[in-house]
Specification:
Order of helices and strands: EEEEEEEEEEE
Radius of gyration: 14 Å
Distance between the termini: 40 Å
Helix content: under 10%
Number of strands: 11
Shape: globular
Largest sheet: 7 strands, mixed
Mean pLDDT: 95
Strand content: over 45%
Length: 120
């Protein structure tokens, strides 16, 4: 089993910054990708925010390009999301995920989420 623990959420004013962290532990085979998704409101679908692959390729939602940066510390199995120039529309629960590959199968694991609230 793999566990993901997010941290770094909170309340910030518009224009401010936050850094989210997600540490993975447990029986990890080979990480293919780690990333962040968010749910803007209860009942809404989660949307991709950013992802980083094992080859360090990154992809971002258009709404966060130029403001958010995803990075990884492979030694710590940790992914970070640096969020700058935050807007009220970034308010959401942010979830970390990990895509693992072992014995020919892909596995996905999710964190429990961390609330980010941006006040205008």
């Amino acid at each position: 089993q793999v566990h993901l623990v997010e941290s770094g959420g909170g309340l910030v004013q518009a224009g401010g910054s936050l850094r989210l962290s997600c540490a993975a532990s447990g029986s990890i085979f080979s990480i293919k990708a780690m990333g962040w998704v968010r749910r803007l409101a209860p009942g809404q679908e989660r949307e991709l925010v950013a992802v980083i692959t094992s080859g360090d390729s990154t992809n971002y939602a258009d709404s966060v390009k130029g403001r958010f940066t995803i990075s990884r510390d492979n030694a710590k199995n940790t992914v970070y999301l640096q969020m700058n120039s935050l807007k009220s529309e970034d308010t959401a629960v942010y979830y970390c995920y990990l895509k693992d590959n072992g014995m020919g199968y892909d596995y996905e694991y999710w964190g429990r989420g961390t609330q980010v609230t941006v006040s205008s």
